[in-house]
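Look over this record before class:
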Amino acid sequence: MRTPRVTVVGAGSWGTTVASLAARNAPVLLWARRQELAEQITAAHENPDYLAGLALHPELKATSSLPMAAEQADVIVMAVPTHAFRKTLAELAPHIRPWVPVVSLSKGFEEGTSKRMTELIQEELPGHPAGALSGPNLAKEILDGLAAAAVIVMPDHSVAQRLQSLLRTPWFRVYTGTDVIGVEVGGAVKNVIAIAAGMADGLGAGDNTRAMVISRGVAEMTRLGVAMGGDPGTFGGLAGLGDTIATSTSPLSRNRALGLQMAQGKTADEVTRGWRMVVEGIRTSRAVCGLADKLGADVPIFREINAVVHEGRAPTEAFRGLLRIRPAKEDEAG
């Protein structure tokens, strides 16, 4: 049997990184919106827009033609921001062969509906197996050859196992699973926790406070994720706690950087103005609160961060508010 051909849709930092990793194992075509960028990736083996100075696999090729990228694919990996996800799926639909698996790298919810990305895949590409790849994955570190791990989930575990072999490398371990809901919720919600951790750092709150915010944030993530149908064990793994730690502590994290600068008095719009890459935690904070209202999940940290990001609440007041919440049992709300 021939090696499956992989198409990665979206040439941002993480999409490009995953494409470069997969190119060690299979023919990979990366779709970039700009023709100039596609040509630079193919000819110079670098992505100067998002990963300047880091070498990509020499066999990786790129195109700016979405139909061409879709038609050659045996596997589609979606790496576009959540706000463009549904539209891009609709553009792909006429060109994808039946039953091709579609894997989401995007960590967030659709604005307005709060749907997960695999739900959008099921709506726009019915009949295509839909899953996700997630974990504590900072693109620049992985391209530098530092060890990392992720989990790939599909409803059918045998499909996840076949995709695992296309994505893993000696330094990038890929685990498998079937809890699509849990992995997607963890990957999305950790961005809000990272904003909170950045605010704590920006306020000089100390390591103890940061640790409290991260651990209690993961507890809220778990409550919400279980209410949505996820497996509670998922949230202590790579796509939950692991991703939260990396995103909440790394200077490479955009969501942490947002919280850090908001603690210094800037608004979210002021911080992100001119940033090339999307900060998914901004939209996710609002979606999480809406989902919590619908499902009856207790998420005080997420509500405080949403109030800072969207309602003008001061970070200092948000943290005073968190300290006023009376603790309950550790495995319960509060």
Notes: DSSP finds 15 helices and eight strands in the chain. Residues 188-324 form a domain with the N-(1-d-carboxylethyl)-l-norvaline Dehydrogenase; domain 2 fold (CATH 1.10.1040.10). The chain has two domains: 6-178, 188-324. The two ends are 54 Å apart (CA to CA).
